[in-house]
Amino acid sequence: MRPPPPPLPLLLLLGTAALAQPRELAPAGTQCLGHECFAVFWASLPFSEASERCERRGGHLMTVRSTVAEDAIALLLQNREGQLWLGLTLSPSLSCTEPKLQLRGFRWVTGDRSTDYTNWAPSEKRCGERCVTVSRELRWEERRCEEPADGFLCQYTYGGSCPPLSAPLGVPVTYETPFGARGAEFTALPPRSTASVAALGLKLLCEDGEGAEPRWGRDTPGAWPCGLGGGGCAGTCAEEGGRPRCSCAEGKVLGADGRSCRSPCEGAQCQHHCVIADGSFVCMCNTGYRLAADGLSCEDIDDCAGEPSPCDQKCVNTEGGFECHCHSGYEMVEGHCERLPHCWNTPCQQLCEELPQGYRCGCRPGYAVDPLNATLCRLHCNSSECPPVCEDYGRCRCPDGFLLDEEDWLCMDIDECESGHCPFNCTNTPGGYQCHCPLGYQDRGVDCVPVLGGSDEEEFSGDTDLVLPTGVPSRPPPKAGRLHPGVLVGIAAGALLSLLAALGLGFHLARKRCGSHGSMEYKYSGPREKEMGLQPMPPAQKP
């Protein structure tokens, strides 16, 4: 049972929609050069509609950038009269043309102004005419875009093209391009063009090669008659038992379509390398890997697991290889571990001396090894000078009994004897001084007192804490008896002199103590060797 016909209003609506669809125009002429095709359409249309007709089939209005394009226009026009739209429009930033400019302010529909060729008709500056046409004389003329021209020129650009098919004599081939051009005379055919061979019942398609050059093909696998374009074979075509068959060169295999040739490794899933062997392929791996059980993937080899080890000391396996490392105290030299000198990582503060079985710490001049820690160095001064100890922020210190000489940057010994520290004889020592009692006097700690009978010269130092022992008489003392009055006078005079001497000594000791808190702040006094203790000094800048 037939369905009922559609109602009349619906038919009228469909008919109106069909009439509203623009009829596709067939080009009146086509020229294909390399990977570009140019077509002429004779239809009275304004600029915008002509541009839309070109774009609908993947092209654009023609850009004429060289004399080659100009020659193509001459062949397309064939001396026919009329004005044809070109792909030139005036830039929106300009209201009038600029005759001094190469393109007069116009730009191509592709958005650029690049060109090696122009052919403007003579004219002055013109306004309101924002599109361009070309005529049989090949002159470019400005024209209002809204006014229809007699036709338009389209340009189609492709990534490659198929050559026309070679055919046996008397077997015609008819071609049709994707933009509607039909004919038998083409120098190149763009992808998606068709070739019809009625005598053989064949219809072929120019297939895009997806990275390779386009080739003629069809949906049915296998070769077609060898006399037509070599049967479509990428290799060679031969008739076997009256049937065409393709074959490939050595090292290639026939593709799934029965016409193309490919490498056996094409599409192989080898993780690293594919090697052709006997018409097939095998997978291989990089050094440090071995082929897995699936024959395609590669797995790492543990190079450190073998015996003997590839390294002198420590081996670390890595992806595809290994690394050699050395134990502490060794270093890598040309692939081998060699022992470092004993001194390479010692705790010595200053110097290190290599010994056959180890090392020994040493110190620079002015320093001595600390008796409590052989790795440390303590400041050690000679009889007159030594280097100071300076901190990072510029503060320097000298040992007791020495002062900093900022000119030579040395700690210099202080001569205390020049400051009157002793009431009698004085001897300067490194970092200190010694006081001596004259003949007939004995040291009593802070003073020299006369002794009866006399003795050798005694001495005392500036260190008030040190008391020297009194000498032992060499003969027994005299018996007690009445004293002569002159002796009493002498004893009284001696006592007075002793009192004066004690006062003088106390005065000098007071002066020494005051000096040690002022300008002599760094002085250490005493009969012993100077101590290593350091006292702070005011900040000093090195010259």
From TrEMBL:
Presence of the UniProt keyword Zinc in the record: no
UniProt keyword list: Disulfide bond, EGF-like domain, Glycoprotein, Lectin, Membrane, Phosphoprotein, Proteoglycan, Repeat, Signal, Transmembrane, Transmembrane helix
Chain ranges passing through the membrane: 487-510
GO MF, one annotated term: calcium ion binding
Keyword field contains Oxidoreductase: no
EGF-like domain location: 300-338, 413-449
Pfam families associated with the record: cEGF, EGF_CA, EGF_Tme5, hEGF, Lectin_C, THBD
Subunit structure of this chain's protein: Interacts with ITGAL, ITGAM and ITGB2. Interacts with thrombin/F2; this interaction switches the specificity of thrombin from a procoagulant to an anticoagulant and antifibrinolytic protease. Interacts with ANGP1 and ANGP2; these interactions significantly inhibit the generation of activated PC and TAFIa/CPB2 by the thrombin/thrombomodulin complex. Interacts with PF4; this interaction enhances generation of activated protein C. Interacts with HMGB1; this interaction inhibits HMGB1 inflammatory activity.
Protein name: Thrombomodulin
Organism the protein comes from: Catharus ustulatus (Russet-backed thrush)
